[in-house]
Design brief:
The protein is mostly helical and about 220 residues long. The protein has eleven helices and no strands. The chain has helices at about 5-15, 25-45, 50-55, 60-85, 95-100, 105-115, 125-140, 140-155, 160-180, 185-195, 195-215. Helix 4 (about 60-85) runs antiparallel to helix 5 (about 95-100), helix 7 packs across helix 9 and helix 7 (about 125-140) packs parallel to helix 11. The radius of gyration is 21 Å and the shape is elongated.
Length: about 220
């Protein structure tokens, strides 16, 4: 192929290209923050805030669990944002430490259940356990949509891991938002029924999101 043919081919290929706006981490972080803010507003308007939180009487378990879910959600969410712009040598391990911290809640619930086996309360109370499960997943939907669209704009090198992290982020932030309305603070309820939506959301993200973001 001669030089003129090569130049012509390059011009033809370049002529089909269109400029796109660069993806900036700050923009993605802004969208993630907006999704969380809107989700919190939805909880406030739709369900209201629990009375003890409104009065400023916050239990230690509430503060610890909310901090863990928020850290996990932000760690997984920001890692998802970064994965949309892959770079050679980048590592995405920070979310694993946040997940390990979050696992302390179900681990504590299991240990306390074993120690107090003779006096433990019921693990499953349908009128509020399933309610928390469904609402935790539902309130994470907006975050999942935002992160999926962000990944579609980019080119994640590992769609499966990106989908998993997007799901974990949406589940954790959904539970974080909904917990401001949930009136139950037992370690059994928080350790299991606030953690299960995160696991389910991560599984859904791992299975559903990758086909939507492949490039």
């Amino acid at each position: 192929m001669g030089r003129e043919d090569t130049d012509t081919l390059i011009e033809q290929l370049a002529g089909e290209l269109h400029p796109v706006r660069a993806m900036r981490f700050r923009e993605g972080l802004g969208w993630l923050s907006l999704a969380l803010t809107v989700t919190l507003a939805m909880v406030l308007v739709w369900l209201g805030i629990r009375s003890d939180v409104m009065a400023g009487h916050l239990s230690p378990l509430f503060l610890i669990s909310q901090g863990l879910f928020l850290i996990l959600g932000l760690a997984a969410g920001t890692t998802t944002l970064v994965m949309a712009n892959p770079n050679v040598g980048n590592r995405h391990d920070g979310w694993k430490w946040a997940l390990a911290m979050g696992m302390l809640l179900p681990a504590a619930a299991i240990i306390i259940a074993i120690v107090n086996m003779a006096h433990q309360p019921a693990f499953y109370i349908p009128e509020h356990d399933i309610y928390c499960l469904v609402h935790g997943l539902g309130f994470g939907a907006l975050t999942a949509v935002v992160l999926t669209f962000w990944l579609r704009r980019g080119a994640p090198a590992s769609p499966e891991q990106a989908g998993l992290l997007a799901g974990i982020a949406s589940g954790a932030l959904g539970v974080f938002a909904y917990a401001f309305s949930c009136a139950f603070d037992s370690i059994y309820h928080v350790g299991f029924w606030h953690a299960i939506p995160v696991a389910i959301a991560g599984t859904i993200g791992r299975l559903v999101i990758p086909p939507l973001i492949r490039w």
